[in-house]
Amino acid sequence: MVDSLQGQRRPCRPVRLLAIFICTSLTVFSLLKQGATPPLPSSRPPSPFNASKLALLVEDRPLPVLAPLVLHFMAALPPDWRFLFLGSASSLSAVNASVAIRNHARTGRLGLQRLPANVSTSSQEMISRFLTSRWLYETAVVPAEWLLVFQTDSIVCANSRLAVDDFLEYDWVGAPWNPDGKWGGNGGLSLRRVSRILEILRNQERPDDSEPEDVWLSERLLYFPGSNMANGSVSLSFSGEIHSGRPEHVVLPSMANGTVANDGDYVEGMDDWRDGFYEPMGYHTGGSGVWLHSPLWGTPELRRHIWSYCPEVKMTLPMDVALFVPGNCGERW
């Protein structure tokens, strides 16, 4: 009896499969008729870079330091930051001579663009006009929200425990003019919030031959509704230029599982060389590395510590090996 029943059920199986096939085919045909197609897998992986973060260098002089400086900033900033170099034909040619620069340009992390023909950076006034132009914030750096402006006399220090991302809550940060002030800072190494600046520039225009761009912009940001300006203390931790900031101090190490457990502290026995010295995230000197202010640079001890803490700052200073290795004294070795 069982064999008989099983034998009666077997013919139903092909019929059921045929019904499923017909239903599936009709469904697919209906979707195709309506223009619906199954999604294709994306051929392009998501970008590892954050479109809202952009570091900008504007330089029309073909300086030999350009490529090393850009590459250092790319290594020292968080890896999701993008970069834009705006220059002249000669400065772009100088930068493009670097194979490493060309490799970064191919990955999309670095953009290399020619300055508009009507833009000049031949003087501080011309630079101020460019850095307060709507075109820069409305077109050139789109879609960035945070803009790190750096110049050839500025540097970020690889040894710093602070990163640019630690300051993203502020609308403007730069080396402070007043260490006890509530706003403002030098624009040569500065972090700016693009949307706020653009709103200001859509309603106001900086008069030619007036205040420097960093003074003009940061003063207006101070009175922008809801703005958040870094005070002098915060700004000193971001960049050092004229004034010295809070010195670092070491603490006794706390051990756990055989290693130092202090989170964010400098500890005795490892970081003693930092004790008592001011260590900003970066430096801006001014005057293409000529203006070295006494509170930061004025003694051999201060300079010796900077050479240890931030040796890369030497790229921004006019240091000539000919002064130390004269051409008529041991010229070959």
TrEMBL record:
| Annotated DUF5672 domain residues | 111-243
Pfam families in the record, alphabetically?
DUF5672
Protein's name in the database: DUF5672 domain-containing protein
Organism name? Hirsutella rhossiliensis
